[in-house]
């Protein structure tokens, strides 16, 4: 009988909104640049160079510490983690370490997640560290057949913030929900643009019952984490049922074959010989800084979700979906600024628009990193949805037609009114056909006809009936004209 | 007692290829050195904290781009297609 | 700038001198004749065009030698090691930039113990440097080339680096003046690290005023080095102030060879006669200083030298067909014996389980030493003692016993551990071999140090230039 699945996470987020790297004034944006063109003597590890700590990196990391309920110490220290690897220019990594005293940028936090608020995970610590360079293998595979490794140091020195959780997760699904929340938080804090390739990575560790802890590395994206964990749990359960001992080890996620496999090089207790970096003084974070930081905190996803529920009267589920992706929440608020119908617009987004976004995710990582105000590269903008909602509310188009319009708008970026005009070209504008329809409606809706002479709402009602009768084919303008004529000619 | 095995292990941690002769020689010499460093055990130290220089966050580097104008690759001999060539991974 | 004697003539004479004597001394690894002459011509041109003195520079035309662990742009910088045999820095160290801005002329790079690890300059890939006072004797180290070149008049001033005494030791052994500034006074950007919490770049010259002149050029806060201290860059002056309280460190004097102790007591008498209040005093925790120093220095060096893997700079050995750990190990076997010893010992003291026993304890000892020194400096303006506990010795005498070699640093490491400034000035001779007097002052109190040194120098009148 297996009990106690325990999963812990080590999440790395690049601080992509910083201009420069963590310890030198090179561009932090290294993507798509010629190899080794975004480097300087410091990040390339030249002899005689010294690390120059980036002030804003500390601020961004502190915002994250606050958001995750962590305590921020008054004194911050950087440590050297010593090991040899070709992607490490100094053969040590500058990072943080708490074994000799609490000196990393955040400790002992907690984050609730999911709509069920009894779910939470403890944050053991948050630390700042530098990214290494990138390795490419001569024959393009991680194979031992390659004669040499090719190294690009453009990324070396970019700021990373690492979040280490306690092993408080019990299912891969919970991990996915948690990671979605982390994504939303770092987006709302404007410290990490998670859409950029490689901006967020996650390693996980898993143990079952009394079994030893297995680390899983090389998981390419947040989306892969759930799959990797599911696989690994199944693997461990199988071994357990056959009474095979589960050893403590590190395994790599093979994305192509969708399995975890033993790491080729045994990562035995590499002795990292940590010691405090002598070239960086202890950084003092005074209480005034910490207080000012609290005031600077932007609206976090939970607060925003609560505001959506109270101010816009949205449902729990709808709010949750909107907040899962900051782009969606922003899109929603832009749309209601144009046409204030929150419930309707939220529904349009959550029911209809969302499937296009999820389908597009696959393309996102390969796309260029230009941030748009619309949703992730789709041609649709807030104004499209705002107008669409308005037209439906006014009965000018039916819901079915509107759904069809969304399909179109995604591809062409045309406004609903433009699409409406196009469809109207193939509409019934033969007066006689319309008059016939009017006859029928007027006969069936006598009281509405009477009201319509006073009240334009009733006129709209009649128009709606006619549209319905003609299966949306009638040109609303012409029909409205004829209705009014008929209403007032007999007067 | 600093053993030959310890020297071998430390040689590995530091990526230094050592001859058998070196391992033996260093084991003896370093044992003496460590013996001297053990002097630190004889002074009472519990009450004191190490001194570190301190800086306020406001004194740190501003997040402003300053690309390097020289050629960092001046002394890099082993390259291919703009990459730096390194030994293959195991 | 003497108008009758152009910079070009002066530099030519310097280069001639180097050619004449450096075969015997071996102070230089590289001599940059072309670069030096070109710079000299430029200065002469500026002077001819009537440019104002301050635009030509406070050090205009002065010939300076640079220890080869300080980066000079475009000029090979080797640390006397195979691991940097072909390294040409793409940038100037801050001190080099400042000196160049002030018109100084770099004539070449000076020999040292490999990666600054040593006290005799015997651990260099380019052979030992010889003491100009007697070429069978060591010049001191690790900045042996810096000390010898100035003594032999191969350059007017030189820069060295001092981690545990590496500027003061050769100054003492070569009868010249050498300063280790307060930690954080001079930028370390461009100084190739050996032990970064202990070291400073320091000037060597024939007189105190030469050293002061260089300090006025190289001191100050640097944005490229976050361990330099904020605040206005001081301008040091030459003052002969007699009202100094002098404390003689008993433990240092008693631990030195008798001829040296005798010389130091004479120095104390001289200070007394000049009107200073002198007293013998004690520093109890000094017996732990050396153990603390070597623990910290070796630990830091084991990490600082990790970057030398021949991938981005180094010597000729292609990585083709090597597995990466095998390549690193093979390449790094080209470090010298002393460097390897320190890397291994440094890894030992930092390794799992030993941090508390060695490194942490050593740092705590530093704090105790600092406390004691600060307290002593309430009573005294300066503390004096011998720079070295021994006279210069013959080549090979201590090279086979590492611990015996380390012991000669016993008087100099205190200043590095506590960060305070310390200067070595010529105090006399014994058996025709130089003896140096060490003077220490409080943190950032270089002016007081210079006052005391100048006072002594003007009365003591010790020979600075050997017959070569």
Topology, element by element:
The complex is a heterotrimer of chains A (491), B (90) and C (468).
Chain A: E1 5-14, H1 55-67, E2 75-76, E3 79-82, E4 92-95, E5 106-112, E6 120-130, E7 134-137, E8 148-152, E9 159-165, H2 172-188, E10 200-208, E11 214-217, H3 222-241, E12 249-254, E13 259-262, E14 275-276, E15 282-284, H4 287-296, H5 301-311, H6 316-324, H7 326-338, H8 342-364, H9 382-393, H10 399-412, H11 416-425, H12 431-444, H13 446-452, H14 456-469, H15 476-489
Parallel strand pairs in A: 11-12
Antiparallel strand pairs in A: 1-9, 1-10, 2-15, 3-4, 3-14, 5-6, 6-9, 7-8, 10-11, 12-13
Chain B: H1 4-13, H2 20-37, E1 54-56, E2 79-80, E3 83-87
Antiparallel strand pairs in B: 2-3
Chain C: H1 7-25, E1 28-31, H2 33-48, H3 53-56, E2 63-67, H4 94-101, E3 105-110, H5 144-151, E4 157-162, H6 168-173, E5 177-180, E6 200-205, H7 208-218, E7 245-249, H8 250-254, H9 258-273, E8 277-281, H10 289-304, H11 324-332, H12 337-350, H13 356-379, E9 382-386, H14 402-406, H15 413-418, E10 422-430, E11 433-440, H16 446-460
Parallel strand pairs in C: 2-3, 2-4, 7-8, 7-9
Antiparallel strand pairs in C: 1-3, 4-6, 5-6, 5-10, 9-11, 10-11
Helix pairs in contact in C: 1-2, 10-12, 10-13
Brief summary:
The complex is a heterotrimer of chains A (491), B (90) and C (468). Chain A folds into three domains: 287 residues, no CATH class; 125 residues, no CATH class; 60 residues, Arc Repressor Mutant, subunit A (Orthogonal Bundle).
How does this model look, in words?
The complex is a heterotrimer of chains A (491), B (90) and C (468). By secondary structure, chain A is α+β, with helices and mostly antiparallel strands. Chain A is built from 15 helices and 15 strands. In chain A, strand 10 and strand 11 form a beta hairpin. In chain A, helix 12 crosses helix 15 (476-489). Chain B contains 2 helices and 3 strands; from the N terminus they run H-H-E-E-E. A two-stranded antiparallel ribbon of chain B has the order 2-3. Chain B has helices spanning 4-13, 20-37; strands at residues 54-56, 79-80, 83-87. Helix content of chain B is 31%, strand content 11%. In chain C, helix 1 (7-25) runs antiparallel to helix 2, helix 10 packs across helix 12 (337-350) and helix 10 packs across helix 13. The longest helix of chain C has 24 residues, at 356-379. An 11-stranded mixed sheet of chain C has the order 1-3-2-4-6-5-10-11-9-7-8, with helices on both faces. In chain C, 63% of the residues are buried. In chain C, a hairpin with a 2-residue loop joins strand 10 (422-430) and strand 11 (433-440). The model of chain C has no long low-confidence stretch (mean pLDDT 96). Chain C has helices spanning 7-25, 33-48, 53-56, 94-101, 144-151, 168-173, 208-218, 250-254, 258-273, 289-304, 324-332, 337-350, 356-379, 402-406, 413-418, 446-460, and strands at 28-31, 63-67, 105-110, 157-162, 177-180, 200-205, 245-249, 277-281, 382-386, 422-430, 433-440. By secondary structure, chain C is an alpha/beta fold. Chains in contact: A-B, A-C, B-C. Chains A and B meet through helix 1, strand 7, strand 8 and strand 15 of A and strand 1 and strand 3 of B. Strand 15 of chain A pairs parallel with strand 1 (54-56) of chain B.
């Amino acid at each position: 009988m297996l009990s106690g699945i325990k999963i812990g996470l080590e999440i790395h987020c690049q601080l992509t909104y910083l201009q420069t790297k963590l310890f030198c004034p090179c561009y932090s944006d290294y993507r798509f640049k010629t190899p080794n063109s975004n480097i300087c003597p410091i990040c390339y590890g030249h002899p005689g160079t010294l690390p120059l700590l980036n002030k804003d990196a500390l601020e961004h990391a502190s915002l994250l510490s606050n958001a995750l309920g962590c305590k921020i110490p008054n004194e911050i220290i950087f440590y050297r983690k010593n090991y040899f690897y070709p992607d490490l220019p100094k053969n040590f990594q500058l990072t943080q370490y708490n074994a000799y005293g609490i000196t990393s940028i955040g400790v002992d936090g907690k984050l609730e997640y999911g709509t069920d608020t009894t779910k939470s995970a403890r944050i053991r610590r948050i630390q700042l560290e530098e990214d290494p360079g990138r390795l490419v293998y001569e024959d393009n595979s991680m194979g031992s057949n390659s004669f040499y490794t090719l190294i690009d140091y453009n990324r070396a020195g970019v700021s990373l913030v690492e979040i280490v959780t306690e092993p408080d997760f019990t299912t891969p699904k919970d991990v996915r929900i948690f990671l979605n929340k982390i994504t939303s938080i770092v987006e709302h804090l404007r410290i990490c643009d998670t859409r950029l390739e490689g901006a967020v990575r996650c390693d996980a560790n898993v143990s079952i019952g009394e079994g030893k802890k297995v680390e899983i590395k090389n998981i390419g994206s947040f989306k892969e984490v759930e799959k990797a964990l599911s696989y690994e749990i199944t693997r461990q359960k199988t071994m357990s049922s056959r009474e095979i001992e589960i050893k403590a080890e590190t395994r790599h996620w093979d994305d192509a074959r969708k399995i975890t496999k033993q790491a080729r090089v045994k990562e035995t207790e590499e002795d990292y010989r940590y010691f405090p970096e002598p070239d960086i003084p202890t950084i003092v974070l005074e209480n005034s800084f910490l207080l000012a930081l609290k005031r600077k905190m932007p609206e976090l996803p939970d607060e925003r979700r609560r505001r959506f529920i109270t101010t816009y009267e949205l449902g729990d589920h709808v709010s949750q979906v909107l907040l899962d992706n900051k782009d969606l929440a922003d899109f929603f608020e832009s749309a209601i600024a144009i046409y204030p119908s929150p419930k309707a617009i939220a529904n349009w987004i959550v029911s209809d628009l969302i499937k296009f976004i999820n389908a597009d995710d696959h393309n996102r990582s390969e796309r260029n990193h230009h941030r748009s105000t619309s949703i992730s590269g789709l041609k649709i903008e807030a104004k499209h949805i705002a107008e669409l909602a308005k037209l439906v509310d006014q009965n000018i188009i039916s819901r079915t037609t509107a759904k069809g319009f969304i399909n179109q708008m995604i591809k062409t970026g045309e406004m609903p009114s433009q699409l409406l005009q196009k469809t109207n070209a193939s509409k019934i504008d033969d007066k006689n056909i319309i008059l016939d329809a009017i006859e029928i409606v007027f006969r069936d809706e006598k009281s509405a006809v009477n009201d319509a002479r006073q009240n334009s709402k009733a006129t709209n009602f009649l128009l709606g009936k006619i549209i319905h009768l003609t299966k949306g084919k009638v040109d609303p303008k012409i029909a409205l004209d004829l209705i009014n004529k008929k209403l007032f000619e007999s007067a | 007692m600093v053993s030959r095995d310890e020297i071998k292990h430390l040689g590995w941690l530091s990526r230094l290829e050592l001859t058998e002769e070196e391992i033996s020689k260093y084991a003896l010499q370093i044992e003496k050195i460590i013996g001297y460093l053990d002097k630190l055990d004889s002074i009472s130290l519990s009450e004191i904290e190490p001194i570190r220089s301190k800086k306020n966050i406001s004194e740190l580097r501003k997040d402003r781009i300053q690309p390097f104008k020289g050629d960092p690759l001046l002394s890099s001999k082993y390259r291919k297609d703009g990459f730096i060539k390194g030994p293959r991974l195991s | 700038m003497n108008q009758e004697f152009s910079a070009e003539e002066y530099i030519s004479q310097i280069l001639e001198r180097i050619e004449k004597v450096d075969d015997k001394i071996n102070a230089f690894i590289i001599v940059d004749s072309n670069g030096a002459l070109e710079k000299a011509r430029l200065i002469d041109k500026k002077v001819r065009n009537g440019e104002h003195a301050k635009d030509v520079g406070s050090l205009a035309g002065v010939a300076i030698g640079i220890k080869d662990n300080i980066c000079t742009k475009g000029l090979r910088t080797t640390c006397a090691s195979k691991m940097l045999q072909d390294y040409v820095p793409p940038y100037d160290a801050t001190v080099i930039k400042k000196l160049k801005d002030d018109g100084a002329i770099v004539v070449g790079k000076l020999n040292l113990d490999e990666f600054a690890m040593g006290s005799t300059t015997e651990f260099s890939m380019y052979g030992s440097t010889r003491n100009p006072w007697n070429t069978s004797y060591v010049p001191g180290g690790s900045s042996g080339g810096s000390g010898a070149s100035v003594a032999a008049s191969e350059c007017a001033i030189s820069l060295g680096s001092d981690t545990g005494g590496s500027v003061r030791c050769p100054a003492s052994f070569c009868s010249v003046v050498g300063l280790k500034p307060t930690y954080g006074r001079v930028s370390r950007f461009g100084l190739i690290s050996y032990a970064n919490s202990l070291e400073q770049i320091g000037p060597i010259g024939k007189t105190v005023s030469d050293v002061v002149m260089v300090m006025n050029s190289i001191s100050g806060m640097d944005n490229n080095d976050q361990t330099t201290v904020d605040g206005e860059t001081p301008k040091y002056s030459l003052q002969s102030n007699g009202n100094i309280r002098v404390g003689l460190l008993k433990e240092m004097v008693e631990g030195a060879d008798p001829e040296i102790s005798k010389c130091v007591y004479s120095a104390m008498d001289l200070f007394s006669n000049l009107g200073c209040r002198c007293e013998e005093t004690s520093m109890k925790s000094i017996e732990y200083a050396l153990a603390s120093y070597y623990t910290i220095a070796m630990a830091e060096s084991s990490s600082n030298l990790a970057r030398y893997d021949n991938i981005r700079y180094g010597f000729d050995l292609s990585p083709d067909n090597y597995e990466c750990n095998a390549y690193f190990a093979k390449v790094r076997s080209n470090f010298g014996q002393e460097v390897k010893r320190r890397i291994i010992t440094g890894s030992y003291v930092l390794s799992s389980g030993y941090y508390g026993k060695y490194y942490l304890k050593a740092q705590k000892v530093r704090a105790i030493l600092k406390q004691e020194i600060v307290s002593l400096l309430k009573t005294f303006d300066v503390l004096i003692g011998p720079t070295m506990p021994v006279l210069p010795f013959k080549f090979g005498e201590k090279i086979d016993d590492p611990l015996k070699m380390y012991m000669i640093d016993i008087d100099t490491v205190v200043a590095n551990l506590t960060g305070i400034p310390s200067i070595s000035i010529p105090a006399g001779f014994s058996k025709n071999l130089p003896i140096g007097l060490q003077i220490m002052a409080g943190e950032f109190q270089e002016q007081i140090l210079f006052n005391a040194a100048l006072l002594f120098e003007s009365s003591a009148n010790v020979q600075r230039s050997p017959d070569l």
